[in-house]
Amino acid sequence: MTSQFTTDPAVLVLEDGSRHSGHAYGARGTTLGEVVFSTGMTGYQETLTDPSYAGQIVLQTAPHIGNTGMNAEDPESRRIWVAGYIVRDPSRIVSNWRADETLDEALVADEVIGISGIDTRAVTRNIRSAGSMRGGIFSGAAASLDPAEQLRLVQDAPQMAGQNLSASVSVGTAQVTAAVGTRIGNLAVLDLGVKQATILNLAARGFDVHVLPQDATIEDIRAIDPVAVFYSNGPGDPAASGDHVALLRAVLDQRLPFFGICFGNQLLGRALGLGTYKLPFGHRGINQPVVDKSTGRVEITSHNHGFAVDAPIDGTFDSPNGYGRVEVSHVGLNDNVVEGLRALDLPAFSVQYHPEAAAGPHDANYLFDRFADMVRAETGSSTDSVKDSE
């Protein structure tokens, strides 16, 4: 394993002109993206390999990162997706028997440019006050670029609003994970940036999980004879995903049971005829309190989203697109953001957060059971009448 020490310079430049000098971490060079912060105290490997972070430079608010290294068992996808990585104090050594490599080595292998040794609290406070903003990490030789040129590159980078990033993270061909235990049927998962823990949770509920490319059509979905459809988390602006919304409307028109998480929640909102908007600095971390309005139970949940659905929190309302009555099912307690939707005249619901919650917490894992129960009720199946997948 390589040393965590480096003398190579690096600088973080934000679009407001602020600069933070530190040390190169991971690959060297230049990277641009939306700078966001994640408040998780654990689970940095799961964060890095979450495709929802594509196009974003992620700052960890936890000061000490990398002490457990990286291993081959915990990644949530096939690679690290963050556009860049910001940490204060990278671990000097790896102290975990499961580690296969250091975090620094993994960043280099996936060509992810990072920076360490800066005041991450100051950057976080800036983003909380001014909102998420574009930034750039310039490390190694790129750190010596003229500051005016560095700022120009940052300010010329695309905004996250308006970007459709699903094609960059989705699988190219369909992949199938077999059901575990008593089988319910085939589940069509539209891969907008799905995490491995989600696939495993769905398979554990009895679904043969067919992960389909993001450009799948309603004919592709019907071809697998699905009992339900699932939309995953993913990066980008839901307003730029018109094709995914049109596909979901076709699913709703055919009354196929539907469950969506994170990006899938935003797309259900738009399919129902609701708007979406960009949050000032988003929700990213594993400590977000959400109330389930049907039970009154408060859950601590895992989030990673910068956009939200615009809908009335109290009472029911009619879908502007003609899908009957809808209600907001979950609400974020920090800022009253819509965290879930439920269609009352269709078998469809969604949540804005991550019930698979790798690496925790697991308060919301019951939602996978709720989905399986809904599909059984809609299809008329039961655990006594379906065959075991084995």
From TrEMBL:
Key words of the record: Amino-acid biosynthesis, Arginine biosynthesis, ATP-binding, Glutamine amidotransferase, Ligase, Nucleotide-binding, Pyrimidine biosynthesis
Substrates-to-products reaction catalysed: hydrogencarbonate + L-glutamine + 2 ATP + H2O = carbamoyl phosphate + L-glutamate + 2 ADP + phosphate + 2 H(+); L-glutamine + H2O = L-glutamate + NH4(+)
Positions with a binding annotation for L-glutamine: S52, G234, G236, F263, Q266, N304, G306, F307
Record carries keyword Transcription: no
CDD domains linked: GATase1_CPSase (cd01744)
GO MF terms held by the record: carbamoyl-phosphate synthase (glutamine-hydrolyzing) activity
Residue ranges, annotated region (CPSase): 1-182
InterPro entries noted in UniProt: Anth_synth/Amidotransfase, CarbamoylP_synth_ssu, CarbamoylP_synth_ssu_N, CarbP_synth_ssu_N_sf, Class_I_gatase-like, CPSase_GATase1, GATASE
Signal peptide: none
Domain of life: Bacteria
SUPFAM superfamilies linked to this entry: Carbamoyl phosphate synthetase, small subunit N-terminal domain (SSF52021), Class I glutamine amidotransferase-like (SSF52317)
Residues forming the catalytic site: C262 (nucleophile), H354, E356
Pathway(s) per entry: Amino-acid biosynthesis; L-arginine biosynthesis; carbamoyl phosphate from bicarbonate: step 1/1; Pyrimidine metabolism; UMP biosynthesis via de novo pathway; (S)-dihydroorotate from bicarbonate: step 1/3
Record domain Carbamoyl-phosphate synthase small subunit N-terminal: where: 8-138
Known function: Small subunit of the glutamine-dependent carbamoyl phosphate synthetase (CPSase). CPSase catalyzes the formation of carbamoyl phosphate from the ammonia moiety of glutamine, carbonate, and phosphate donated by ATP, constituting the first step of 2 biosynthetic pathways, one leading to arginine and/or urea and the other to pyrimidine nucleotides. The small subunit (glutamine amidotransferase) binds and cleaves glutamine to supply the large subunit with the substrate ammonia.
Entry's family note: Belongs to the CarA family.
HAMAP family per the UniProt record, alphabetical: CPSase_S_chain
Subunit structure: Composed of two chains; the small (or glutamine) chain promotes the hydrolysis of glutamine to ammonia, which is used by the large (or ammonia) chain to synthesize carbamoyl phosphate. Tetramer of heterodimers (alpha,beta)4.
Protein name, per record: Carbamoyl phosphate synthase small chain
Species of the source: Microbacterium marmarense
